[in-house]
Each structure stands twice: as structure tokens, then as C-alpha cells.
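User: My instructor asked us to take a sequence, write out its structure as C-alpha cells, and then describe one feature of it. I'm not sure where to start. Here is the sequence I was given:
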Amino acid sequence: MPVLVASDLDRTLIYSSAALALTMPDARAPRLLCVEVHESRPLSFMTETAAGLLTELGGLGADTAVFVPTTTRTRKQYQRISLPGPQPRYAICANGGHLLVDGTTDEDWHAGVQSRLAAECAPLEEVRQYLADSADPAWVRKHRVAEDLFAYLVVERELLPAEWVKELAVWAEDRGWTVSLQGRKIYAVPKPLTKSAAMREVARRTGATLTLAAGDSLLDADLLLAADRGWRPGHGELADETWTAPNITALPERGVLAGERILQELLRVTRTDFA
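Assistant: Let's start with the prediction itself. The C-alpha cells for your sequence are:
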């Protein structure tokens, strides 16, 4: 049976310029590959070594490894990314709200997600209105709704009051939603909308009996816990909280070099399982 490898993308495998964390002397900085262009500008990167590792992982074949990009990005945002290696057959977008099969949404899966959200948590409009009423325009740059599933704000991080985020988290918890602060974005996401549920569905379809996962944020915690083994980098929400679990390896690397190390670990364990 194949190994299923489900990995978050932003700040796990791919990195914006601001998140690279290139703390070494310039002459020792790794060579970078641009994997996303937006509005004619390079936006996301990985090291060339990481690109080679991902290509190698994808090249093992569907009978050995099934690589599944797993992201909170919308489908449109995900489709801007050009990952090295073979095109993944499956991709998880919108935090599990959309399961892509050969680039196309599985409508039955999406309909099932919508039914769970309607039954188990407060409606999106209530959350969106709360954000509109309570967030201060002095530090909010944008209000966004993603795929009619969840909401997020783009903020000026240095002006953002920490207490406001805590108050939002308490308010959301009572309504069946969760809050995640990632860089300049504050996400409000329904609790039933999970990456782990979509990962389990891909495992069922592919027959995978071993699942590996990687991620850096609170929205990745359920994915990591659902996998047989998981890795988190030395940065991000989970690292800030020193979050861990018995099946989780907390890596020391930060920034784009963490993405390289994560792929080394994913490839190593996949090969070991088939040795």
C-alpha cells in the first residue's frame, strides 16, 4: 500500500520573502526556486535542494507514495503555485472544504462539508459581521471571505492588539469556530472544517495504511494528530506554543531551511517503509 504524505504549504514547504529566515551570511544562503508568481511578482520560494527532494518524492510512483498538498488557501490561490515534480493527483484546499481530484473539485465531498457546517456551527455571516464590527480599521488592511466557507483578515501585525485576538478566539469558540493568527492574517474557521477529514478520505481512496503529515499552524494540529507521524518546524503558531504530541517531531530548523528538512524526513520515512 502507498504511503500518504499530506503537507501544509505556506511556511511549511513554501515561503514568502518575509518568512525565509535567511540568518546566515549572504554568501552561504541557499539557492532558491520561485514556485509562485502573483501579479507578475515572485511570491513564494523553496530551496533548490527542497525542490529536488519533492521531485524525488513525487517520482516514487503512486504505488509507493501519494503526495497531497494540504492548504488553507482557496482553490484559486493554490492554483498559482507551481510545485516541482509530478502534478499531484489529490490536493486539499480551503482547509478541507475542497478536495481536488486531478485539479477538479469533488462536488460530493464539498456538499458533505457544507452539510456538516450548517449542522454543527454558527453561520459564516454571523462571524463575518462580528469581524466587520469589532476589528479596528487602524490595523485592518483587508476583510476576506474564502470560498464561502471561512473568513480572514489581513492586518498590520505591529499594530494588532493581542487582547483583541484572544477575545475573538473566546467568542468564536462558543460558536463552534476556531481562530488562527498566521503572519499578517487572522483566520476564523469553522471547527468541522478540517484538513484531517479530507486526508482520511484520500487515504481511504488510495488504500494508504501509513500517513505522514507536516504543518506549522494551529489549523494544522488536527492534520498532524490524525497522521501516523508528523513534523512541525521551529517557527509558527505550534512552535510558539511548544505544541507537541507522541507522534510529532518538533524540528529545530526555522524558515525555508525547515521546509528542506521536512522533505528530507518525509522522503526518509517513505523509503524506510518500502525498504
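For the description part of your assignment, you could build on this observation: Residues 13 and 259 are 4 Å apart (CA to CA). Try explaining in your own words what that tells you about the chain.
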